Every structure is written in structure tokens, then in C-alpha cells.
Amino acid sequence: MKKNLLIFAAIFALTVPVFSSCNKSGDDNKKDSKEVVMKDGTTKSTAKVVKFDKTLPPKYKDPNGSYDIKKMEFTEDGMCMIERQLVTRADIGDIISEVFGYTVSGNTYTIIGFGTVVISGNSVTVTFDSGGEGGTFEATITPTSTSTVDENNMARTWKVSSVMLNVSGNGVSIKKTFNGCNLEEIGKYAADNGVSGLSKHLNDLKGYIVDYVIFTGADTFIITFTGANAIAGTFKLQANNKLNYNLPEGNPFFHGSSTGDFEFPADKKTTIKLNITVEGYTGYVEMSLTAAN
Q: What is the pLDDT of residues 86-105, one digit of tens each?
């Protein structure tokens, strides 16, 4: 699938409703409502970003070609995002994002199904399970952190419970909730109910089902799909339960910078609402998420 459609998918899935970080009991006017405070993610103490920007990076090979490993981000909740860039002779291709589970013991990170990373100072030793050219490399290594309750709550791996699409204007009014997040199903419903411009994307969305939505202390959000590459963007939580996010150009649902809202209705629960423009119509995508761990 083309990069823009991956982004479209990721983002479409990413749209989650979020309103406030307080879990209120009973009448909203009562003063005994409690802020939801979740436990740290399972790997918060070992979360970090590794960027190979000092020397030649590790190279990874598969049947599609040779790739430079640009970045590894070990998240606060047991996932590792690897960004690799296709290198064809002198040409540099698109960035591909993949997500793997990881475990850590001391300074050794075992990326399940990919390889092993040992971090010592500013040196990183990479050993691939197969298909790579490992070795020891210089890197910029940055531990990640969360400074507020909301940031700590959000920095984990989330499973999609449901997603609601709301699009209106110019004679179109769509508001429907879907179980899970099957992008082909959601796109077809919107196309059949007035957002006709989505019809041309439906074949490319076949089989694109959101697996996880991941937020990190490095302000990264990641969407993973069943049987497909992940997509990554950036986000920032703001005051009054507001959310800013930025995604690359080139997709029909999300592009550039936009805003949203977030809420933590209960322990290990979040809802995120992202404002969107899709095929000339305005609206939002809202996702209800449950912590995976």
C-alpha cells in the first residue's frame, strides 16, 4: 500500500474521543470527583529513543531491498517502533515504520522477532535475528519521560474497543459507531452515505484493521495494523484536555496539524477525539481504547 494510504489508515484508526482526565462519580456538580491516576507503563523505566544519526546506520535486508535503520523507540509499555528507510543505490526511499514487542534485562533489549540491542553509553550494538548487517554504532540516545498525570496515563499501548465517525456539511450527516476499527468497513459506510470521494480508496483499505494505538513519552503516536506496516505521527497534550497532533500530508482523513480532545473515564481507559477534514467534509473520529497491559 502506498505511504499516503498507510497514513490514512493509521490516522483513521487513530481518531479516538477524548474529553477530560477526570473520572466523575455521580452528579457532575459534586466536588468529590477523582482524577484517574494509572500505574506506570510496564517498561516506563527503560523507555528511550535511539537515533542513528552520527555514523553509518545499521542495515536491514528483506526480499524488498536494503534498509537503513533510522530510529528505534522503546516505548513505556513494551513496544519498540523501528523506522527504516529503503536505500536503492544512491536513492533514499520512504520511511517504513514497524512495531515489535520487546523485553529488557539490564542494558540488553530483545526485540521479539527482529533482533537484540545492547546499549552502552552512546554506543549501540545491534544483532539481527536474520537479514541484517549488525555491529556497533554510535547513536543519540534519549530516555523519555512523562511530567504530568495525563502524560503518564496516555503513554502506553492501547487496544481499540470502538470507533465513531462523525462527518457533516453540504447535505451529508454521518454519525455511526463501529466495533473495533476495520478501515475498509468504515470507509465503505462513509462512501455509501455521501462521502463519495472515499470510493477510490476502498480497494487499498481491504484488510486494514487497526491492531494497537500507542502513545509515548517522546510525543509519538503509533498506529499498528493486522498484517501491515505501522504509521507514526506526533502529538501533544495541552491544558483543558485538549490535544494537538501533526501528521504528514497526503491522506484524505488527516493531514498537517489539527486538534482534538482526550479523556480518561476510568483506569486503563481513554477516549480520543480528533478533528478531521475528509474529502472536503469536516467532522471528527472518536476512538474508545483499553490498555493492552
A: 886 555 667 889 999 999 99
Asked if pLDDT for residue 10 goes beyond 80, the answer is: no
pTM of the model: 0.85
Residue pair 215/221 in contact by the 8 Å Cβ criterion: yes
Give the other-Cβ count within 10 Å of 143's Cβ.
12
Cα separation, 200 vs 6, whole angstroms: 15
Grid coordinates representing 56 are 553509518
- In angstroms, how far is CA 228 from the centroid of its own chain? 13
Q: Cα–Cα distances in Å, from 22 out to 33, 154, 213?
A: 7, 13, 21
Return the C-alpha cell found at 24. 466523575
**Domains and their CATH numbers in the chain:** 3-28+33-38+150-291 (2.40.128), 48-143 (2.40.128)
Contact 264, 215 (CB under 8 A): no
Average predicted confidence (pLDDT) for the chain: 85
For range 231-238, the mean pLDDT: 92
* Cα–Cα distance for residue pair 17/181, rounded to 1 Å: 13
Q: For 19-41, what is each residue's pLDDT tens digit?
A: 344 444 344 443 344 699 999 99
Q: Which residue has the higher pLDDT, 2 or 55?
A: 55
